[in-house]
Amino acid sequence: MSNALTRASEIIDSYNCEQSNLIAILQEIQAEYNYLSEAALTLVAEKLGVSTAKVYSVATFYENFSLEAKGKHIIKVCAGTACHVRKSGPIYDAIRDYLNLTGKKKTSDDGLFTLETVACLGACGLAPVMTIDGEVHAKMTPDAALALLEQIRKEESAE
């Protein structure tokens, strides 16, 4: 086992390698690594004594699990009715263009940002809304969204 999976192994062991804890194990591994790698899914299967296909089927069934590496900062743009009506689409499009995302690609080449849409962020009165790393940004515009990303880039390069 590689050093990269040491923490994943510890997580699995903390659940006593019990198959009934599969979802909790996957959730905790994803929280640690920001996604579920093929190697992590294989390790889970081996340690729980189940097929890799079973682990993979659980990981792909639930929308909250990601099999793709995510960026350091997760951007979620609300696509709910209130946000959609108040033009969240152009915000998403501006961010997508800014990050040079094409096709199904969700993560910027530098690994700094991942862009996602969500059905509702539960802040309809503040629409259009987006979150960056869970922090809510209300009454957004495309320009305001890009300014936030520029600010994060500057902070990252200063570190």
Write a structural description:
With 159 residues, the chain is α+β, with helices and mostly antiparallel strands. The chain folds into two domains: 59 residues, no CATH class; 86 residues, Glutaredoxin. Helix content is 47%, strand content 11%. A four-stranded mixed beta sheet has the order 2-1-3-4, with helices on one face. Helix 1 packs antiparallel against helix 2. It is elongated, with a radius of gyration of 18 Å. The two termini are 32 Å apart.
Q: Summarize this, please?
A:
With 159 residues, this protein is of the alpha+beta class. 47% of the residues lie in helices and 11% in strands.
Please specify the SSE layout and strand pairing.
Blueprint lengths: L5 H9 L7 H12 L4 H11 L3 H10 L11 E6 L2 H5 L2 H11 L14 E6 L11 E3 L2 E3 L4 H17 L1
Parallel strand pairs: 1-2
Antiparallel strand pairs: 1-3, 3-4
Task: Return the structural class.
Answer: alpha+beta
Strand order of the largest sheet: 2-1-3-4
The major β-sheet equals: 4 strands, mixed
Shape field: elongated
Taking Cα atoms only, what radius of gyration do you get, to the nearest Å? 18 Å
Order of helices and strands: HHHHEHHEEEH
Number of strands: 4
Quaternary structure of the protein: single chain
Strand content: 5-15%
Q: What's the CATH architecture of the largest domain?
A: 3-Layer(aba) Sandwich
In CATH terms, the superfamily of the largest domain is Glutaredoxin
**How many structural domains in the coordinates?**
2
Can you give the helix content as a percent range?
A: 40-55%
